[in-house]
Write a structure and sequence with these properties.
By secondary structure, the protein is an alpha/beta fold. It is about 30% helix and about 30% strand. The strands form 2 sheets. Strands 1, 2, 6, 7, 8, 9, 10, 11 and 12 form a 9-stranded mixed beta sheet that branches. The protein starts with 13 loop residues before the first strand and ends with a helix.
Length: about 240
Amino acid sequence: MSGGPHRAAGDTVRELAHAALGRAPYRPVWDLQRRLAQLRRQGHIPDVLLSLEHEPVITVGRQGSPQHVIAHPQVLTRLKVEVIEVERGGDVTYHGPGQLVMYPILDLRGYGRDLRRYVACLEEVMLRTAARFGVEAHRRPGLPGAWQGMKKLGSVGVHVRSWITMHGLALNVDLQPNLFSLIVPCGLHGVEAASLAELAGRPIPLEEARQVALEEFAHVFSAHISPLDRGVLERWAT
């Protein structure tokens, strides 16, 4: 979990604008990501980091199979859980309350143009955040994310076009409820979802986890993170 090979940058400190979006449905934030990525690609805005928690939703990535959504459609309807196919890498995952989601809209030309290192850095943010709460997590070769044994603590799924990133990481802080039983997480049978609160043995407010994760994100990515005015974000989004 050392910062050495998994630091995204050297000594250069980069500026990163952060917007905390609270709890939000998936589709509007997905649309916002695409808009911001387009503006970043055109050089109209700086690097941006969105942090939030989603209303319950299941997303299917490019390598995903709808068969890994094992809940009956009537159950999904009753629980108001939508299934959405998206352009990120990876298989099937669940987002919901009690999960910290971070969507970096970064120009990787400023971070070494190295996609594998970028994914490793997102994992590093989660591993370091977990450690701050006394939870030792680890990587599993070929299975992106943060793990504790066969338990999945956090997921990584990204989309990069012209070196501009979308999607990102999702760290299970204190899932309420834990609806990972609706899917085969990552398409791997026998995998269970775990949360920081469960492993730490105490409730962990999402805001507390967010602040720690932001500190670790700044460290891993050699970035200075400053708040993004909500009015500015809304202007960019229109």
